[in-house]
Amino acid sequence: MKIKILLLSIFLYSFSILTFSQFGPMSQFDPNGTIRNQLSLQIKQQLGPNYSFSYFILDSMLYKFSIYGELSDPYGTLKNKVLFIAYPAYNGDSTSDEGNYYTRPDSAVIGFFGNGAILWRSQLISITNVDTNVFGQNYDYGPSAEIMTTADINLDGRVDILLMVGGYYITNLWIISWDGMTGEIINDFDPANRTTKLIGVDYFDLIDPNGNGIKEILTYWPPNEDTTVDAFKYPQVNISTLPYVSFGWNGSKYGLWNNTVQVGLNQFLPANRLSGSVNCIVNKDANDDSLIYSYSVSSQSTSHQRIEEFYLEDMSKEIKIFSPEEWWVISGFDSTGIRWNSFWPQISVHPGTTESGFLVKSLMVPSIIQYHLRGETVRIAYGPDLNIFNYSKIVQDIRTNSITGYSTAPVNPPSPFVPLNFLDTLLNFDQQSLNLGWIKNQLTVNKYNTYFDTAISQLQQNNIAGARNTLNNVLNNVNLDSSSNLTSEAYALIRYNTEYLLTKLPNSCLAVKLVNSSNINITTGSLQYYDSTWQNAVNNNDGTFLVNTPRKKVNLKMTYANCTQTLSNVPMGSDTVVFKTVNTSVQLLDSHGNPLDTGTVQFYSGGWLNFGTTVNGIANMELLPITYKFRMTYANVSIDTQQNIGINPNVVFQTVNTVVQLKNSLGTPIDTGTVQYYAGAWRSFGTTANGIVNKELLPNSYKFRMTYDYVSEDTTQNIGISNTVNFSTVLCTISVKDSLGRAVNNADTKYYAGAWREIGLTSGGTAAKELLPVSLQFRAKSGKTQQDITQDLSVNNLVQFVLP
């Protein structure tokens, strides 16, 4: 029994039907009992009066369903023949001609009967092992015999009959080679006890891992090895592929030979030893607007395998699929394809035959897709006590272990739909059809290419009526060419795609173009129009666009340089709508109106984008005439402004002359002070000369730092409001007294600014120095006595020490 991945209910239902029609009583094919009576008489005369038998009228079985394999008569030697198995009735019970299914015989004879006589019969073979103790239970079902296959499986010019004889679980396989006159048992068997050495569980399967046409026989090895193998006196098996074992042909017998190719768990066998093709005819459904894709699968007579599986790639889910008959099963193929696989080998596509009626119904347009054809194979080996299924491996094997070709199948049309792009697709279909042999000659290809090129030109010129007329000429010609120059595939591609295109063409088009300030076309823009959703207009890639919509008015959205300009309620008509950019200039001037370099300019459109760097104080760029935010960066400082360049395309940034002053406590300018400003880091501003330093800066709020005599003071000021930044020192006075309040002279005074800096020796108990008004640490030392004080000079500039 070949394992399939199917619903259990379907499997059981099908099995009951097929078993009855094939292997049930033969009375339905021998209604008067003539064959039965003649065979019964011959058996009793040659074997004895107490023999029962089962028989198979081969003419009634050939070319019908088989759950095991092929039932054929390749050399015409089975015509008017009957295969029988005769066995002694158990304890004399029942000599029914049909055999008693509850007897327990220990031996049998296999033979051929025809023209009223037994033509050949085998020696007595042992069938004592048909009622083996399995899993600790005795099954009392008597000898059952089923024909697995009738075919020339070893290519020796004789038909081989594979007869399965077994009880409830364990099955014996006997192979009879028949030339029309005499038979020969060609399975390996034990001559001592006359038992076959071909034994399996429930099923056997014919495989061809070598690809030489000579079949091997795959079966599932009995799991209860200790009892089963010993009971059958079968040689010990040591095969790495267990629980599977393959019996092979050694030139004279089928058996377990050392050179037999063994097939193991999860191993795929070759499924591409065949030659075949797929034909597709597409017709409209008479009841609705859908198309019916009718496939036929052909296998050439040179194929070494039947075609059991047919796969179509790139199949959308929005389709309806119909099987050719109930014994072909439809299932998904990864995420985008579908497949048909035959439920039983007899309904697969045999070499030299064609199977039709694989139907797909869909509203979608035809396209060129790839198909896969696979021969019979064990897809993934697994047995009754295993639960192994790897779908990804199956999908991979489908694509690599098959023969492939191309056919037509429904696919979703492009969305958004662009007529010019769709015409390019039709041109591509023409060339592919010629390459695939679907269009018979180059002259025919040229004719349709001319039609499609003309339609493209007409659409670009907004000549919708002309394009419609051209496409109708395509439909007229495709019907004329269908009988001679086009196959059914090319006919479907050209006709139904052209018809679909005609349904999508509007009554009129709107021409749109994008130009710069010098009226030169800009080719890097994109246009959308609103028709329920924003859709892409036809881009001719030369700065012009076509809008195809049945609406009378339309909203347009032009995108250029990441910026968008929208026009609303534009009438559809013959006038070309123009989007025009403006030459936007961004200037950087100093406080005297002189140009400055190098300022870096950006503009904002979803993010800050590069505009350019000023040269001679100016940077230029073509932009759509809308409102933008611009950013100027100069001397590491940035400032933003917003402007509608449709009103004024000139954007001006101007620096201010920033003055930083340093004065002492009397208001007198002093040097030298070092000035910095903060812009991401502390930047150099300059050094005072006559108490002043200047720099051009963008009008913004800055933090400034003055450093004088190693002491730094910071201040923040918006130079757009006031461009003069003032720093002033204070006269820091150090007073040193003793504990009795007396002035201490010659005391050494210092302040800390990165290191201890000198103020001087006290005179009259005091010392003084101009310092910036910040918090500092001070020190006074007299003799061995020293004292430190921290004081904020901006609060109190008198620092008093009392030395003990």
What does this structure look like?
This protein is α+β, with helices and mostly antiparallel strands. The chain has 7 domains: 8-200, no CATH class; 276-411, Sandwich (Immunoglobulin-like); 419-504; 509-580, Carboxypeptidase-like, regulatory domain (Immunoglobulin-like, Sandwich); 582-654, Sandwich (Immunoglobulin-like); 656-728, Immunoglobulin-like (Sandwich), CATH 2.60.40.1120; 730-803, Carboxypeptidase-like, regulatory domain (Immunoglobulin-like, Sandwich). 15% of the residues lie in helices and 42% in strands. The protein has 9 helices and 54 strands. Strands 1, 2, 3, 4 and 5 form a 5-stranded antiparallel beta sheet that branches. Strands 6, 7, 8, 9 and 12 form a 5-stranded antiparallel beta sheet that branches. A 5-stranded antiparallel beta sheet has the order 21-22-19-24-25. A hairpin with a 3-residue loop joins strand 35 and strand 36 (608-613). Helix 7 runs antiparallel to helix 8. The chain is elongated. It starts with 7 loop residues before the first helix and ends with a strand. Residues 1-25, 92-103, 130-142, 225-234 and 379-387 have low confidence and may be disordered.
